[in-house]
C-alpha cells in the first residue's frame, strides 16, 4: 500500500489506477463498518375512538401504540367472539362449595399460572401444548398438597367432586375458560386413586425406593429427559411396584367392566405424582411435570388432517412448480392453520404425516419444496402471514394489563417442511441427530448475548387488532 501511495505521488498513470483501487477498498470496507441506525418513531396519541375510526389520510402508517382502552368492541354483540379476539377478562370472587377443606391461597401461584395458560380466548388454541399440561400439573400439585395433613395420597370421591368443582370455579374467576375439563379430558376422578391398590404414604414408602424416585425427579433436565429419560422410568417403576402387576399389553383376560392393566398403571402413576408433589416445592413439582408433559405431547401431531383428495389430484404428476398444485396445497394448509398453536417438533411430525398421506395418494414429488411450504405453515398464523411455532420446551401464556395475552414464538427462520422418504412415518425419531432442529433461537442464548428476542413475542391483542381492522377495511 505504501508503494501505491508513492506511485500516486510520483507517477500520474499508475497513480490514477491506485487512486481508484483505494476508493474501491474504502467502499468495500464501508459494508463491514456500517452501523444500522435506529428508526425514530413518532407515536401519535389517540384522543378518542371517533378519531381512531377516521379514514387515514395516507397509505403509509407509522407504528402506533394501542392500550386496552382503545381496542374496539366486537361489533357483533349477539354472536360469539372469534376464537382469538382480544379480551381482558375481569377477576371476580368465585362461588365455592365450602366442602373442600383446603386453603387455596397456598398454591395461588400454580392457580394463577393455570388460569393464564387456560385463558378464556385462547384455551382451545393452546390446549394441547400449554393449557392441558399445566392443568394436569395443577391437579397433581393439589393432590399432593391435600395429603400433607394426612397419610393419604388421594382424595375420597365425595371430597374430590367438591374440590374439583372449586378448582374450576377459582380458575374461571381468574380468567380461565370454564370448558377446560372437557377440553383437557379431566374430571374429579383424577384426584382419586382410581383402581390403584396403594393410596397411603406408609404402604407407598414400603414398596417403593423413594430415594431413587426423588433423585430421578427432583430436577428434570428439559434437554435430556425426552430422549434419555430418567424421571419417566422411575415413575413407571414406582407405579408398577404399587400396582402389584407386571406391565403387559395383553388385556384379553380382563373381565368386562373391570379396570385393565393400563388403567391400573395410569391410576397408580397419578398416585406417584401425588407423592412427588408432597415432597417437592410447588414450583419444582410444576417444572418437572410440565417437562414430562412436553416429552409426551411432542411425540404426536395434534392436528386433524382430512383426506387431501384435491391436493392429490392436482399434485400427483407434477415435477415442476405448478400453479394448480400449489394453489390446492396452500388452500388445504390454510385450513390447518386455523386449528391450534403447535410446537416446532410437533410441526416436523405433522409435516411428515401430511407428506406421507400425499405420498400414499401418489404424490411422489416434494411439493413442499415446489410450493415453498415451511414448518411454520402448519401452525396458527400471526399478522395473517407469519407462522408461529412454540418452542418444544414448556412455555406459558402471559397476561399483562397493558398488552393482554401474549406468548413467545420460536423458529423465526424459514425452515423447510421435511418431505418424507416414504408413505410410512414409523421410523421417524426426533431424537435422531438428523432430525435435530437447525439453529433454533432460545431465550437463554439471546439473553446471554445481550440481545433482545426481536420478533418472537406476539402480543395477542395488538396483532389481532390489525387482523380485525384489515378485515373490516377490505
TrEMBL record:
GO cellular component terms, A-Z: plasma membrane
The record's listing under Pfam families reads: At1g61900 (PF26584), SPARK (PF19160)
Ranges of residues in domain At1g61900-like C-terminal: 299-372
Record key words, sorted: Signal
Keyword Repeat listed? The answer is: no
Signal sequence span is 1-36
* Name under which the protein is recorded: Uncharacterized GPI-anchored protein At1g61900
Q: What is the scientific name of the source organism?
A: Cucumis melo
State the organism's lineage: Eukaryota, Viridiplantae, Streptophyta, Embryophyta, Tracheophyta
Gene designation: LOC103494609
